[in-house]
Write a structure and sequence with these properties.
Elements (H helix, E strand, L loop, with lengths): L5 H13 L3 E4 L9 H6 L4 H10 L4 E4 L2 H4 L11 H4 L10 H15 L3 H4 L4 H11 L3
Amino acid sequence: MGALHAGHGALIDRARAETGCWSSVFRERAAIRRKEDYERYARTLPGDLEFCRERAADLVFRADADEVYPKPQRVYVDAPSLSEYLCGMYRPGHFRGVATVVASCLIWSSRPRLFWRKGAQQLAIVEAARRPT
């Protein structure tokens, strides 16, 4: 989301030590339900990029919300049996937003045309999650 801190740094350091690391700096609007909270969320991109550089992240994914989310949104990832408990009880839709953007980033970082050719509809759905328009 940005405004990276020591907890993020520990994750980057561990990933880098184990396999290599790419990180994202993205204010994820679907996980922040209230518009005023989204607008107030810290925007610290230069510092976040330096933070990742200092930890030798291999890649930093940075995009604007309009690049990540198509209009209208066509694909969502939802896990109601997991996301309706604990803090999810008080943050309806939060984990749907988190799961959707994480899945989108993972799909973007792969080559779906190479391994999703099992069926035309399946490829269309994966591509819809991958493309902003």
